[in-house]
Design a protein that fits this description.
Elements (H helix, E strand, L loop, with lengths): L9 H12 L4 E7 L11 H4 L4 E7 L6 H13 L3 E5 L7 H11 L1 H9 L7 E7 L5 H9 L18 E4 L3 E4 L3 E2 L7 H10 L9 H15 L1 H8 L3 H4 L3 H11 L3 E2 L3 E2 L1 H13 L18
Parallel strand pairs: 1-2, 1-4, 2-3, 4-6, 4-7
Antiparallel strand pairs: 5-6, 8-9
Bound molecules: guanosine-5',3'-tetraphosphate.
């Protein structure tokens, strides 16, 4: 399998991002809590060198609670200020505000030593497509302002949004490109909807998801599709056919519509109807 993303635009996007980075003190990196490492672009370490950093584990409402806690500890142990959120909820922005202050403490102290008082922190939001950057900016800023769009880099003509006395936020997020060589990471990104669906066939992707669910969340599979325990243990292809029948995904001639069933399973995973599911845990090899 070969999964590629934005091959031609990378250099240009990176250059644009570097320019925007020069303007800010703080980088708010948004990751998908269901696969924080896979949804992280490792180039951000180089791009954000010398900046205060904050990791936001977003879509935490869709992820496994125990895994959320494990990921929070994982990042905190590495000295990264981390906060989790459902970016659609205004109430979740309160802990974010506190985390922004923590992440910028050093900068504030440096400013004070130089006699600079009350200079607002300038921040920008970055992340790969679909992790919730625009949703976050809208909730954090309290109004509809972030433009959506999936071109990497940052749209020119940015505006600063003033957030209280302390923070100024760029109104457009920096869109990073998903980066991976590993097939498993590519699959996770496809499941999160961060790489285009056409890249991997839906059916193939659904079989990978079914295999994962069989190993990690068999109860979710049983509960959602009323499968027997024995059914959930069958070959993934047979499980898919079974779900097609149960969900009435039937073609002419009474044949199971596997493509439709595949889309249904993936949609139900993405929307959380399959339950709160995390695709990777700290300490696991990326390829496992
Ligand atoms: P992006 O800028 O990083 O590309 O992501 P964007 O904000 O456009 O969000 C992508 C999708 O994820 C949107 O759903 C958005 O509502 C949803 N989303 C963002 N943050 C969260 C979160 O913390 N929890 C959950 N459950 N969903 C979140 P959509 O279906 O594409 O659009 P919409 O119909 O909801 O507007």
């Amino acid at each position: 399998m070969q999964v590629q993303w934005y091959p031609g635009h990378m250099t240009k996007a990176k250059r644009a991002m570097k320019e925007d980075m020069k303007l800010v003190d703080l980088v708010i990196e948004i990751l998908d809590a269901r696969a924080p490492l896979s949804s992280r672009n490792p180039d951000i370490d180089e791009l954000g060198r010398g900046k205060a950093r904050l990791v936001l584990l977003n879509k935490a409402d869709l992820a496994d609670e125990a895994a959320n806690r494990a990921w929070e500890s994982y990042f905190k142990e590495q000295g990264v200020v981390t906060v989790r959120a459902d970016a659609r909820r205004r109430a979740d922005m309160k802990p974010v505000q506190a985390a922004v202050q923590t992440a910028c403490r050093e900068k504030k102290e440096r400013d004070l030593r130089r006699g600079i008082k009350n200079r607002p922190v300038r921040a920008m939001v970055v992340g790969i497509p679909n992790v919730g950057k625009s949703t976050f900016i809208n909730s954090y800023a309290g109004r509809a302002c972030a433009k959506t769009g999936n071109k990497p880099g940052v749209t020119r003509g940015n505006q600063w949004i003033r957030l209280g006395r302390n923070v100024e936020l760029l109104d457009t997020p920096g869109i990073l490109w998903p980066k991976f060589e590993d097939e498993q990471v590519g699959i996770r990104l496809a499941l999160l909807g961060s790489v285009k669906d056409e890249i991997l066939g839906m059916e193939e992707l659904s079989l990978k998801l079914l295999e994962f669910l069989q190993n990690r969340y068999p109860e979710a599979l049983e509960a959602r599709y009323q499968l027997s325990e024995a059914d959930t243990k069958r070959e993934t292809a047979a499980v898919l056919t079974e779900i097609a029948k149960i969900r009435n995904c039937i073609l002419k001639g009474n044949r199971p519509d596997r493509e439709k069933a595949a889309r249904l399973i993936i949609d139900e995973f993405r929307s959380g109807r399959l339950g709160t599911i995390t695709l990777e845990l700290p300490g696991e090899e990326q390829g496992s």
